[in-house]
Amino acid sequence: MDDRDTIAAISTPIGKAGIGIVRLSGDSAISIANRIFVSPKGKVPGKTTHVVHYGYIIDSASKKRIDEVLIIIMKAPNTYTREDVVEISCHGGIITLREILDTVLAGGARLAEPGEFTKRAFLNGRIDLAQAEAVIDVINSRTKASLRAAMRQLNGNLSEKIGELMNDIMGMLVQLEAAVDFLEEDVEITPYSDLLQTTTRALQKTLKLINSWESGKILREGVRTTIVGRPNVGKSSLLNALVREDRSIVTSIPGTTRDIIEETISIKGIPLVIHDTAGIRHPENEIEHIGVGLTRKSLSEAELILFVVDSSDCLRKDDIKIVKELKEKVVIAILNKSDLPKVTGEEEIKRHLDCAGFSKISALTGGGINELEKTIAKIVFSETDGNGSEPLVTNVRHKNSLLKVENGLRQAQAAIMAKEPEEIVVVPLKDAIEGLGEIIGKATNEDLLDKIFAQFCIGK
Asked: Could you read off the pLDDT of 151-168 as tens digits, one per residue?
């Protein structure tokens, strides 16, 4: 597709709504708007910028009114794409939106590809690639903490750190290449001791960003969490208590839950993707056999296990069998039914399982749920809650590029310590610069851009 085309798309979710928006961007956006918009006062959009006009969108062929609208004209370069942009706010019904979009397309625009508005914002220099990727994170945020982290990246928090690193490394490259140019003069442009200090500082900054990946990944993707236990210990009641609604069916009949029930909730700003599973025991029929198999699959993929036991009962063989499947996992043992006389306590569980934490609750009454949430937050996300000012690496592409930067800096550091010639030190430093450039889009290719922006919806 030609990047000079004028593009258009519906920019609001499809369905019934009070307002819907059709967006245009490109050289012909304003002229198309002028042809399909009629103002009751005869005003022509486009004479002024960033002004709202009231009127009607008309069918260009029949001249019949399609809808009553507000139209905003925004002239380049002070727009999202740095091109002329028009936004038509109409009634949010699907028929209305499609009629207006068809009229815009008939007027000379083409349908935008997924993410093409944001891609143009990147290509036209309004945002860098890391900021463009943050747009999709803002849209997909599932908690306030993940939204704050995405907004910091969109506002250039990560890009600023990448820029600082690039400046540090470029400064060393300039000095080293100058030394190569003046080899015959036998002049040391920069002492290797200074280069070593600068390389070490750059490496420390890089490692700090890499180490933020685990926290960033949690905010972006959530923690895969599985509730497990033998039948009828209160697993579904626990899910309902955490979700604050009756999401799972709860009965006194063992084996009620046969399938995996998934919910995403926010606990202290942490997205938890929780699976309520079938109780693990010897299955009595084919359906229960399938349910237990799904439970074991969920267990193998989980990053956090909520192991529920009935504290009003002794540990049974089925409990012990489950314990054997939880080795090497991060487990919080939950002593449910704390409103009843205690039979099983922490000490007995400790004899069988090394747990990251314990929690006493009554899923029936809600007692202890707040304390459980604090325990989960402490274990999963003890160091960062998404409220700080430091950037978090939330994208695996960024992490992989930073690993490339780390490798280049370590090689340069080793070469400097070994007193290798300047032209040898330059090579890994250039690799590090390339890795940083990949993050913000200074070193990229069309295939990568297509892959990134294909994740976006049409209209953003």
From this structure: 999 999 999 999 999 999
Cα–chain center distance at 265: 15
> Under CATH, domain 221-380 is a member of which superfamily?
P-loop containing nucleotide triphosphate hydrolases (3.40.50.300)
pLDDT at 422 over 70: yes
How far apart (Å, rounded) are the C-alpha atoms in residues 213 and 258? Answer: 36
The listed CATH number (3.60.20.30, 3.30.1360.120, 1.20.1260.10, 3.90.226.10) that belongs to domain 7-127 = 3.30.1360.120
Cα angle, residue 210 at apex, residues 207 and 215 outer, rounded to 5°: 130
Comparing CA positions, the residue from 152, 166, 278, 291 lying closest to residue 226 is 278
CB of 332 within 8 A of CB of 357? yes
**8 Å CB contact between 428 and 415:** yes
The amino acid at 157 = N
Evaluate whether the domain defined by 132-212+392-441 bears CATH number 1.20.120.430: yes
The residues, ordered by sequence, that sit 6+ positions from 416 with a Cβ below 8 Å of its Cβ are 192, 195, 196, 199, 425
pLDDT digits (tens, 9 = 90+) for 34-48: 999 999 887 777 778
The pTM is what? 0.79
Cβ pair 294, 277 in contact under 8 A: yes
Paired strand residues for 224? 273
Residue 456 has pLDDT above 50, yes or no: yes
Contact partners, residue 68, CB within 8 Å, separation at least 6: 55, 56, 90, 91
